[in-house]
Write a structure and sequence with these properties.
Layout lengths: L7 E5 L3 H4 L2 E7 L3 E8 L9 E3 L6 E2 L3 E7 L6 E5 L2 E10 L10 E10 L13 E3 L3 E9 L12 E3 L3 E9 L7 E10 L11 E4 L4 E2 L8 E2 L7 E7 L8 E11 L11 E4 L3 E4 L31 E13 L4
Length: about 325
């Protein structure tokens, strides 16, 4: 998966009272990891360990072994400078009659980030009605969108360059749209989550009404570039951007399938053909939805949810 990588391992948040009687070894491969937990006094039941959402690959009376891919078990990916880090939690769930209390160890594998790497928005690749695979990507980019970002920290008011794309392979040409994006403090949206709306109402960049955020001119129909002005939300903390990506028939634009941003002093503007800006008129009210049909059937499109992050917005004046 990642050639020319250097491998490392971090073992964090060790519980001293437990580690006296146990040993944890971590081996980071190019796209997998092996974790071995060995109990010296059989205090814990090895079958009750979990790595993310994975059960042990094997276990004995004193040992739990996990041999898993980095795309499995809900590993989290974090890009910091020139490093690509995969982190997860090793959790002991205990049992009602156990004398060992539940505990968690954070584990991580750290690699040198390939220069052309940016995060996959989902994995594995899915097949669209048996015709061909579509692969969606979303990532933080550098200022001119020529490569991945070198940092995930953005000062308040600066631009956060975001690129999303879809690999079409044998599909008919597709137009990629961002139908919805919100910022949250968690990688999964919860009913009680505090949200910051970015794109709503079927492709309306509502954040651009009060900022300099905008869609950049397209280079390819299968890519969309968003310059998002860093906003006041969870300053100094982890932020995740949740988006709904839509791959659509390029000639099938309407007021529910569009990319609109607000130009100060001018009003709403359609990214792909400003002369049809009237498709954006509903951004000030409600853009009615209709059922999506499949590209493979010769009709319209397919959608995929994606999460970008974590990233951090900082206030340089605080």
């Amino acid at each position: 998966m990642m050639a020319s990588l250097w491998q490392g391992a971090l073992l964090l948040s060790l519980v001293a009272a437990i580690s006296v009687y146990a040993d944890m070894k971590l081996d980071c491969g190019t796209d997998f990891m092996t974790l071995v937990w060995t109990e010296s006094r059989s205090r814990a039941d090895p079958s009750l360990f979990r790595l993310g959402n994975c059960f042990p690959t094997s276990f004995t009376a004193r040992q739990a072994v996990f041999s898993v891919g980095l795309d499995d078990c809900n590993f989290r990916r974090l890009v910091t400078g020139h490093q690509l880090m995969y982190t997860n939690d090793l959790t002991y769930i205990s049992s009602p009659d156990s004398h060992v209390v539940p505990f968690t160890h954070q584990v991580a594998c750290t690699y040198e980030r390939p220069k052309d790497w940016y995060p996959l928005s989902y994995d594995p690749v899915f097949n669209t009605y048996g015709q061909a695979d579509l692969v969606f990507h979303i990532g933080l980019m550098n200022d001119d969108f020529s490569g991945p970002a070198e940092s995930t920290s953005f000062p308040l008011g600066s631009f956060i360059p975001i690129m999303a794309s879809v690999e079409e392979k044998t599909h008919q040409p597709l137009l990629l749209l961002l139908e919805e994006c919100v910022a949250a403090a968690t990688p999964e949206l919860q009913p009680e989550s505090n949200l910051y709306p970015i794109i709503t109402n079927k492709g309306c960049l509502v954040d651009s009404q009060t900022s300099r955020s905008k869609f950049e001119p397209r280079q390819k129909s299968s890519e969309i570039h968003l310059s998002l002005q860093a906003f006041r939300f969870e300053l100094g903390k982890e932020v995740f951007i949740h988006c709904k990506l839509v791959a659509w028939d390029p000639v099938g634009l309407d007021n529910t399938k569009k990319a609109c941003h607000y130009v100060q002093g001018h009003g709403w503007e359609l990214l792909d053909n400003p002369s049809y800006a009237n498709l954006c008129d509903c951004c000030d009210s409600s853009c009615k939805s209709r059922r999506m049909r499949s590209v493979a059937s010769g009709k319209l499109g397919v959608a995929q949810k994606a999460v970008l992050g974590p990233l951090t917005i900082t206030d340089v004046n605080s």
